[in-house]
Amino acid sequence: MGMLNLVLANISRKPATRLYPFEIRAPFKEFKGRIILNSENCILCGICQKNVPLMQ
Ligand code: SF4
Q1: Are 49 and 55 in contact (CB under 8 A)?
Q2: What pLDDT is attached to residue 31?
Q3: Is the CB of 21 under 6 A from ligand 1?
Q4: Does the CB atom of residue 43 touch ligand 1 within 6 A?
Q5: Which of 35, 36, 38, 48 to mutate to test the pocket of ligand 1 (most atoms within 8 A of CB)?
Q6: Residue 35, ligand 1, Cβ within 6 A
Q7: Number of domains in the chain
């Protein structure tokens, strides 16, 4: 009966996913833009690695 209850509960719920790319989520209010790296101007100073820990 557990599986049947789960199926019946999911029928009445809205989908957990979006129809990307047709439905695009609005950006978060803290969103400041994307980082675009121009490798021709990079001098390999490493400042970006220190300031953005996820890039390390
Ligand atoms: S901060 Fe330095 S290493 Fe990072 S992209 Fe700019 S020039 Fe290159």
Answers
A1: yes
A2: 87
A3: no
A4: yes
A5: 48
A6: no
A7: 1
Q: Is the CB of 45 under 6 A from ligand 1?
A: yes
Identify the pLDDT of residue 50: 84
Give the per-residue pLDDT at 54: 65
Give per-residue burial for 11-46: e unless 16+ CB within 10 Å, then b: eeeeeeeeeeeeeeeeeeeeeeeeeeeeeeeeeeee
What are the mean pLDDT values of the chain's consecutive 10-residue runs (56 residues total)? 89 90 91 86 89 62
For residue 28, the enclosing domain spans 1-56
Instruction: Answer whether 46 contacts ligand 1 (Cβ < 6 A).
Output: yes
Q: Model's pTM, two decimal places?
A: 0.43
